[in-house]
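Escalation from tier 1.

The customer reports that the assembly of two entities below gives different structure tokens on two consecutive runs. Tier 1 could not reproduce it. I'm attaching the input and our single run for tier 2 to review.
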Amino acid sequence: MSDRPTDADATAARPDAAARPDAPADRLDDSRGPEAPSNAPSFRVLLTAGLIVSATLPIAAFGAILILTRLGTDDQVVVPLVIGAIVAAAFFGLLVAAVAVAGLTAPLRRITTAVERVAAGEPGPPIHVSGDDELARLAESHNRIAAEAGRRNRELGALLVAVARYNPDRGVDALRVQAESDACAIYGLIDCSVWLGDPEAISREEAIPGDPRPVRAEVRSGGDTLGVLVGHLPATRAWERADQDLLDLFTSEVGVALRNAELFGQIESQNARLVELDAAKDEFLRGVSHNLQTPLTSIRAYVDQLRAASEEAAQDRRLLIVAEQADRLTRLVRQLLTVTRLEAGVLRPEAEVIAMSPRVRRAWEALNAGSEFELRDEARGWLAVGDPDQVDQVLWALLDNAVKYGGRNGKVEVLIAADETIDRLHVTIADHGPGVSEADRDRLFTRFSRGATQASGEGTGLGLYVSRQLLLTMGGELWLEPARDGLGAAFTLSLPGEPPGDEG
Amino acid sequence: MMEHRPRRILLVDDDPSLLVVLAEQLRDDGYEVATARDGQEALRRLEAGWPDLILLDLMMPRVDGLAFARHIKAEADLPIIVLSAIDTADSKARLLDEVAEDYVAKPFHYPELRARIQRVLRRLGDRIPRQSVVLGPDLTLDLYRRAATVAGKEVRLTPTESRLLQALVAHLGEIVATETLLSRGWAETEEAEPSYVWVSMRRLRQKIEVSPDRPNYLLTVRGAGYRLVASRQDV
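Tier 1 run:
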């Protein structure tokens, strides 16, 4: 209709709207409640309806009085006028309501968004609401809650970072000191100490207003109480249930770390002790081997000299036996030494090219077994790759076994063959003895195991174990061939091979 | 191969009985032998004149064997054969790479020791460089510590490979006959054949050449032997 009444009534409507903050507050309360009725008229509708009623009611009343008291000179004029005024007032109320709702709900929307954000765990900047009415107080209390949630989030983050660094290998004392300084940094404590032992030994302090506030949390791991963390907060700092929970979380992590460090320390010291013992054993064996091998060297040298002195001496079986037994002893001592080196992991075999056929023959001759021997070389020109000294040890052990378990006058057969597809050389050493029983097959390559059928006391029980381990360090393998009728045990050693070469 | 002058050997071992019998055996084979029971005595013997070769037990008392060997090597390129209860597969033996020409693990058979002595004496006159030999941008040999650097990466050489390269480096750019390489790389007791050299050269190329199929350094001279050259691509 006209602009004038709008202006006048808008100013009149504002205090009216501003004076109803209980409506939005109620709505907030409702929405916070878990069972807020979903069909309740919204704040916006209520406000609009209220404004329309408050704008139209006086006019309607005024019109009614006019009509009833017949003060109006002409019904024909008054009635339409009153109806027109009521309609205009209704429109005006609607307009004012729209503006008021927009103005009123803006801070509410801001608060709602901020609360939702905090609920989702991502606090934003504080909300600014001017004035000191309920809305402003609501915003302020939200800001405080958000700030605390933010602080606890930061504390939790710092806590997680701190405990992730608690490696057990740092030791109990270092971890304890670290936990103390971390607790101070994370929770803003003035001082802090972690006591290990009965927590009751540390008496509880009373909180005295104005003095630094004491805090306390037990350090636990599993069901055990390891000690207690005590410290002080600045007097101005709030300390709530959630803060205590966070501190308890921290001390439980510290407890686990301390327990781990304790166990780790025990393992460390046991390890150190074992390493010490191992080194002592190694040194002992080194000394023994030196002290055994040096006299063996002179025995060997003197026997050689004696046997070279005359034709008669060269034929003397007694001298031959001395020489052979000295060699045998030498090999056994070397085998023992090899075991210790294998276990210490200090064996570093060379990868030299070696011809297997002459090596097998020499190893056989050194054994001087006297039984029948057949060597077939189906890999002419092939060279194996391995450490010559170690390969000699393996060949000696396998040939020695073949003689020992091959039965009286048992023939020993050796076959050298190449697998050209994978460039490997296989040496199979077979005897004609009783073979290996099913029961023995599984534990054949373990330490100190002998065939059950074999009388104990022969050999060290180390031969196959050492051979297999040596071959493994050289990229080789050792296995027992499947049992065959009429034949004894057959072992195959495999080594990387080099196909026959030319000058190229 | 008799020499016009007997080769001199200094034998150092703490076991007197071994010292006596070994000295006798070596003298029987025409060597001139001096003996010492410990490092101090050995140093005194050296004052009277340097031998061609030292046979050394590393576990001797007083002056530590390794320190003694280092002292010798600092003075001159004198070949040392270590007689030891430590064998080559022991990681401690690696410490000896820089000082020992060869190892003979105790106990040994005299013929084996003699074969090793002969092999070492064959290289007399070939100087083993005590520092790196740079053959090209992607190959440096450090034979005194049995290693090579190939395109920036370190490669370990076996004792045999190292001996073969020593013979080739001593005659850099010249042809070294397969027979010569055979006698440098292997002792007589190993009954080596030319194919040992061929296969070893093939393996060496795999180790030290950037493209083994088109070698830059280790070249074959068909029917004659091998040649080690500085890189042709060298600028």
